[in-house]
Amino acid sequence: MIPVTHVLVLSAALFAIGVSGVILRRNAIVVFMSVELMLNAVNVAFVGFAYGLNSMTGIMFVLFVLVVAATEAVVGLAIMLAIFRNRGTLNIDEFNLLRW
Amino acid sequence: MLVFFYLFAAAAVLGALGVLLLRNPVYCALSLVATMSALGGVFILLNQEFVAAIQILIYAGAIMVLFLFVIMLLNLRSDEQFIARWNPGKVVGIAMALVILAQLVGVFTSASATLGPAGEYPAERIAKEGAVEIVGGLLVTQYVLPFEVASILLMVAIIGAVVIAKRQIAKPSQEGR
Amino acid sequence: MELLLNPVVISLVKVLVIILLFVMVVGTVLTLMERKWMSAVQDRIGPNRANIGSFRGRGTLHIAADGLKSIFKEDTVPEGANRFVFTIAPFFGFFSAIVIWAVIPFAGPLGGFTFQITDVNIGMLLVFAVTSLGVYGTVLAGWSSNNKFAVLGAARGTSQMLSYEIFLGLSLVGLFMIVGSVRVSDLVAYQNTYWFGDVLPKWGVLTQPVSCVLFFVAMLAEAKRLPFDAPEGESEIIAGYFLEYSGMRYAAFMLAEYVAIVGIGALTVTLFFGGYHVPWLHADGFHLLGAVLPLPAWLVVLLQLGAFIGKVLFFCWLVIILRWTVPRFRFDQIMALGWKRLLPVCLANVAVTALVLLAVDGWQ
């Protein structure tokens, strides 16, 4: 029996790493990967709760998180392609056309 | 059992740190694949083979391949100055990330945190009826509305991606066929 | 004795026997047989020169010669290649070609012993998950080679494998709906039930003919075999994604391809051609039209083992003969065929199967 707390701490650690990735990295694709990492951390928490509570609800949430992650990746990467085509870079510091 | 959990958890955290710290985007993607595979192992240990399979199938086998494909297509170089330029915003950001971590861990490990009432799907029942059967049944009964909404979301995403990524939308009159 | 009966040890022995004595052997022999059959198609004799003294063995020594040659060849890494990724890339394809054998049953159970490494609950989902990892071998090899042709091959391979993965899974949904399970042993056991009393076995190819064809096509595309080998396309982009590889690593790519062919055969047989079952052969002997021919259990298992291996070899032959019979699709044709033709057929197949199942349920 794995303690649910340990699963949740794993999830928290992955989430925090994902947050720091979003803040620190300058490459838009890596930032994007960090977002996926955060979604994964949430999945871990859901599965951990499903395991601890003998419930299926967490699993259903994971399924829908997967759907959202897939759509997000597809649309996001398409946007990356479009941006790269226009700006020639994926450094998010240089995406400043909409700055005031 | 617990040992394997710690092994997989350590592998997952190491992979996540790789995403954060490695310079080359391809290495970042590979270490994220490693994280996701390790999480698949964690899910197996938590009696959720089904989730483990779709985790590998969708995350590692589809989403991350798409990432790698785009990185390859754009021929991205390593970003040389990825944490080089420190500014107050970033320091605050890291502090915030640490605060989030501390808060989450604090909540999860606090003595007053208790699990709610147990559900009706213990591991024995899942093993007997099969996770695929249970999830399938729930998807078309209790969760049928989210399921349909998800399908529409996926279709919107497909169309959106095609429209955004296409170089030029050809005008109907110019189309050959 | 205690140690020998330990389940972990038994599983390990099964893994070693199946991988080393069957999969690798058949895969290696296929590298020669492909050239032999190709030359038969082209009205040539084929490789027959390797010899020890005067012994040539009709070309069988070429297997050993090829192995030795690839061991002793220099293992080059091209200038400007990403050395780490270049080194690990061959293992991904190999891994995904090997791991699917974990769920393939070779024969019925004998006593408490099963001829299957593990019969997991998620069955075919494991196969899909592992197959989907094979694409990394292609994309990483192509990207790390620092070669335009390799990148072209990798780009083609990635988009092709991602596209065909979709109806690799979707083509089997009809079968899963009929059997009501994704567990491999259930899928195989269902195919030893019969229509009209005990006359016509309910093989997958009879219950789901459309999905059988779709699955076979999707597997060919996943393994990048002709007519879907645009990622390798010798006449256009030399060798595609593994163009820069040499020596043992090149051999790893080739061997992975042939192991994947054996995998195609095994999966097609298991899902659509009765698995290890011989028609009308049950655990206690033949049953046909009320007549019973009792057989001892060991003979039944031997017959099943022989039937499975025979069927798998037939499909290996089919895959290879297909290569030398049909021309290569152009790349845009592959994508158009996948998304515009096969995907709608897949969805229609699922819908029709669902309607038929509903009708049968209502009628009974």
Q: How is the topology of this model organized?
A:
The complex is a heterotrimer of chains A (100), B (177) and C (364).
Chain A: H1 4-24, H2 28-53, H3 57-87
Chain B: H1 2-21, H2 25-45, H3 49-74, H4 88-109, H5 123-129, H6 131-140, H7 144-165
Helix pairs in contact in B: 1-2, 2-3
Chain C: H1 7-41, H2 61-72, H3 83-99, H4 124-133, H5 135-144, H6 148-170, H7 173-179, H8 184-190, E1 194-195, E2 200-201, H9 204-207, H10 209-222, H11 234-237, H12 247-272, E3 281-282, E4 285-288, E5 291-294, H13 297-323, H14 331-363
Antiparallel strand pairs in C: 1-2, 3-4, 4-5
Helix pairs in contact in C: 1-12, 1-13, 2-12, 3-4, 3-5, 3-12, 5-6, 6-10, 6-14, 7-14, 10-12, 12-13
Key descriptive features of the protein:
heterotrimer, A: 100 residues, mainly alpha, Helix Hairpins, 3 helices, C: 364 residues, two-stranded antiparallel sheet, 14 helices, 5 strands
Notes on the protein architecture:
The complex is a heterotrimer of chains A (100), B (177) and C (364). Chain A is 78% helix and 0% strand. Chain A is mainly α and 100 residues long. Chain A has a single domain (4-89), classed as Helix Hairpins, CATH 1.10.287. Chain A contains three helices and no strands. In chain B, helix 1 (2-21) runs antiparallel to helix 2 and helix 2 (25-45) runs antiparallel to helix 3. The longest helix of chain B is centred in the middle third of the chain and has 26 residues, at 49-74. Chain B contains seven helices and no strands. Helix content of chain B is 72%, strand content 0%. Chain B folds into two domains: 1-110, NADH-ubiquinone/plastoquinone oxidoreductase chain 6, subunit NuoJ (Four Helix Bundle (Hemerythrin (Met), subunit A)); 120-177. Chain B has 177 residues and is mainly α. Chain C has 364 residues and is mainly alpha-helical. Chain C has one domain. Chain C contains 14 helices and five strands. In chain C, the strands form two sheets. A three-stranded antiparallel sheet of chain C has the order 3-4-5, with no helix packed on it. Chain C has a two-stranded antiparallel ribbon with strand order 1-2. In chain C, strand 3 (281-282) and strand 4 (285-288) form a beta hairpin. In chain C, helix 1 (7-41) crosses helix 13, helix 6 (148-170) packs antiparallel against helix 10 and helix 6 packs parallel to helix 14 (331-363). The longest helix of chain C has 35 residues, at 7-41. Chain C is globular and about 70 Å long. Chains in contact: A-B, B-C.
